[in-house]
Amino acid sequence: MRRLQPEEGLAFVRSVRIPFLDPFHGDRVQQLRDERAARTLETDRAWVAEADGRFVANACIASLDLTLPAAPGQEAPVVAFAGVSAVGVHPTHRRRGLLRQLMARMLDDARSRGEPFAGLLASESVIYGRFGFGHATTAQELTIDRRDAAFLGPVPELDLRIVSGPGEAREILPSLFDRQRRRRAGEPSRSAQAWDHALEESAEHRDGAMGLMHAVCAEGYVSYRVHEGRVMSGERDRAVVEELRGLTPEVEAALWRYVFDVDLVGEVTARRRPVDEPLRWRLADPRRLRVTSVDDRLWVRILDVPAALEARGYRRAGRVVLEVVPPRDALDGRADGAPGRWVLDAGPDGASCRAARRGEDADVRLGVADLGSLYLGGFSAFELAAGGRVEELRPGGLDAADALMAAAPKPLTGTGF
Fold this sequence. Notes:
With 417 residues, the chain is of the alpha+beta class. The protein has helices at 9-17, 28-40, 98-112, 166-180, 192-198, 203-206, 249-260, 279-282, 305-311, 368-375, 381-386, 397-405, and strands at 2-3, 46-51, 54-67, 78-89, 117-121, 134-135, 138-145, 161-164, 213-217, 220-227, 237-246, 265-273, 290-296, 298-302, 318-325, 340-347, 350-355, 364-367, 390-392. The chain starts with a strand and ends in a 12-residue tail after the last helix.
């Protein structure tokens, strides 16, 4: 087990392909994609396990920042975090403790850099809870027939223009994205590689759809692809919304209206939408909007409790004492600053968090992973308590925790890493 060397970036990317069942076959598109990924890889934050001169396990961290819940009337704070990615063990070397070693090294690295928490998108949701990662954000996929998408009332007129092709989109969309993500917790910064992926136009990426189109204005944008129907048989096109981002709910409503009014489209599907999507409340017939899938997105691992809790905003004032117990896998006894009893005093004007003193008994008991689930406000303390994840130790403790940790709007992670 060792840290990657700077000249090994391409070999690392090829190693990552194997656990994800997509080995390199010499295809030109694969080659270009791998070279691009290797160029953006932070090799000083990448680790491999090596056996007989070959990589057999891999993991890396992307240095990112994340939007956190905001105090009323404020933009979402942005804090650096360790974006854990490319984690995998080759099928030939499973059940040998390699994942535990990789995870220990990554979390040690994040702590040494002062990052208060780590996060990941889990390919398998059963794996990471034992290391202290908690499911923190959720996204849903929505589908509606555009004939059923009448609104109850009017929406603003936007000065929209069509942008097609990744070059012009790359010049326009990043600044809009960065402004819009400050409205909601849970959104990572978007690296150059993430933008390359979002705007990619290879046939494999399009999956049979036509080219990516962007309708853009000064206050937001919508990016969508159209899957062509068989016109002669009466089957209409289907639009798939990859992203819809507006600086206000009214702008987002107007972007929805634009999509629903595109000619030739029959059905509209939108990916990675928030669980509190306001579109349903705009519709004359809300029942017609169908939730076609719900997926976990960001998993959060708190590393420094005071730094993490003091970084986010709070909607109301309160005090709660949290007893945080260690994760199931202690990673070979490595120092972990998250477990302990912590006193959180917080309100719209700021927060302080410190270790509890003698006689300051805990209000609730929860695991490190469960604190990660509460951290962005995506889930309530009552939900987790009902699921056996949080224990109330003092009457009113759940109310205190719930009141402090709640967030509005709900967090969303629309960006992968």
